[in-house]
Every structure is written in structure tokens, then in C-alpha cells.
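Section 5.1 Outputs to date
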Amino acid sequence: MNQYEPTPSHKYLATFSIEVRGVVEPSDVIGAIFGQVEGLLGPELELRELQQSGKVGRIVVKLRRRDNHSVGIIELRSNLDRIRTALLVAAIETVDKVGPYQASLSLQRIVDERESDRERIRRRAIDILRHWGAKAEESYRNLIDQVVKETATMRLTYYGPEKLPCGVGVRDSGEIIVVEGRADVNNLLRYGFDNVIAIGGAVEKIPKSLVELISKKESIAFVDGDRGGEMILRSLLEQTDIDYVARAPKGKGVENLTAKEIRKALSSAIPAEEARNLLGLKQAKEEVKKVEPRPPRTSERIPQPLMQFFKEVENKREAILLDENLKVIAKVPINSLYETLDDYEGVRYVVYSGIITQRIIEKAFAAGVKMIVGGSTHNITKIPAGIRVVAAG
């Protein structure tokens, strides 16, 4: 009855949730679907005929027992057009009994499987380019770097009367990253950190607008790993109430760091008071804040552009992964979010209604995520600089 194996030519994958008020087997569910859908839509959409002709794939049922009920998912692949696929899906949702037990089926989502094929093609194309020879590789990387740098420059803006180079996120973010110069700003913008601002010019006198900005926001000084970086750090510690300090690896400048090096340095930031003690500095101003190990900040409201996605997954066991432009990259089960974050490139936002944990935050930060939106948090002890965590509850 269900010997036809689906082929990659199938266009759509429909996933249903099922709950049966009794203990049943997958074969019982499949039999109920065939029995109750038969004749419902006429000969053109007869399920057995559609499978035999290859227009519909094998029905896959995955069940688990919960108390005295059976719950799980049903997967159906279709090569029909959108209208006929929708009719067939609606018909399957009418199934209300499996054997002697009451049952309920509900469509969870329909996806175009050709999108995953396109993603595989994209990844394969990149792989081919990477192995196209040393010269082609160098040319390719130079091209990508140029595009990325140009994009970063387009996002560059300026702050205050001193025209300090910065990213657009400096004004809206509750946290800022303070670096030395424009090149440092461009490098952080390149990797998605748009809440960055440069001191600009001489450091004997920190610009007044920057001093005021630092006093209003949670701020982290990110300096080079050399003598020059130490001098800038001393000026910041003496003239501002900076909260945290991060340094590039020894001998390296912030403008030359990779994404991985940037994230590692920011996640290892120490309280400013600890940095003062290490440098033998005294507290410059009475109003300098007493900073304990970095507290989590999860009290922000969900940004309006992300609210629609949060409402979509509210009360669902699903997470939405979005790119820089808030385009959906993938939707994944919450219980596999940690394992699958590395499988997708360009993820900048993660939205789900479940619990945000320290483990998820650290994995998301390592993957380049800028913001996590969740239903609540649990046992959060540290949030790396450069990632925002927003909880609805």
C-alpha cells in the first residue's frame, strides 16, 4: 500500500501533528488516513492512485506514547500543484478516528522542498569555488572581502558633534562597544556588531559626547593587544565610567581580528574595576559605577519587527532562524535548536517562545547571532557582549 519511496522531485512536504486517545501503531494511522480520505475528493485525488503514479510519496508516521495516548507527527510529500496539495492536506485533517480511538490531526507547516535543494546547490557552489585552485581562491576571497567591506562602510555612520565613526546600532542598543578608530569600527561592522563606536583622534581627551554616551549605556572598551591599546585603555578608565574591558590577542589589532577572535575577546571581558586594579589605576571619578561580574540584561521589549515572528511561534515547539534582513532561513524544533544552529549560515536572529538557557546563548553567540527572543530565561549567568537576549516573560 505504501511501497512508493519519495524522490527528490517532490515539491512540497506537509507535516501534521497527531494525537490519538489510545495506544496505536503507525500502520493503524496510515490505514485510518486511507480509509477516511478514500472517495472524499473524487477519482482525481484518490490517495492510492496518487501514490502509485508517484504524485504523492510514502506517508511517514512517527509516534510516541504519552500516558495512554499516542502523539507524534505525520509527513506527506506531494508533487501535485499548490491547489491540489492544499485540498489533499485539508482532507487528511478531517481524519478523526484511528481504530476505536478518537484522534485529531492538525497541519503544522508546508514547505517547498526545492528550497533545501537550492541551499544544497548554494553550499556546493561555494565548495567548488573553494577548491578551484589557489589563484581562483585568492581572487574569490578578495571579491568577497571587497563586497563585505563595502557593505560595512555603507552601514557606517557618525555620532555627536565630533563626528565619531560608529554603527547604526549605537543609538538604539542598550550596550555599546568602544574601539579606537574607524578601521576597528569597520571590522566589527563586517561581522555584525553594529553597536560599535570609535574614540576617534587623540586619546588625551575623550570626546565629550562619547563620555556622555558611555554614562548612559552599558559599555565595553575593546582595545588592541599592544602598548597603544593599553594607553587608550588607561585614558578610557581614567576619563569615563566604562563598565567592561576586552583586549585583542597579544600583538594584534582589533581591525585585523577574525569573527571568532572578536567573539572570544568580547566573551572574556572583565569588569572595569578589575582592569583598573591590574593597571594600578585609581578610580578617576566618584560616580564611576561599581561593576560586578557582567549581569544578564533580558528586560528589553521585543523589537516590533520581531514581534510578528514571536507571535507565529507562540505556544509552539518551534524556533525561527532569521538573517540580517529578517528573512526566514529555517524553522527548527526547539529541542534540536542547539544542535542545528551550526547547520545554517548567516543566522542573526533566533525567535522562539521557549526557555532561553545559558547553553543556547553561548552557542548562538559563537554562531554569530545578534539577538535571541524567547518566552523566558533560566539560570542565565553571563551574556557575551555583542548579543542581546530578550524574554517576553
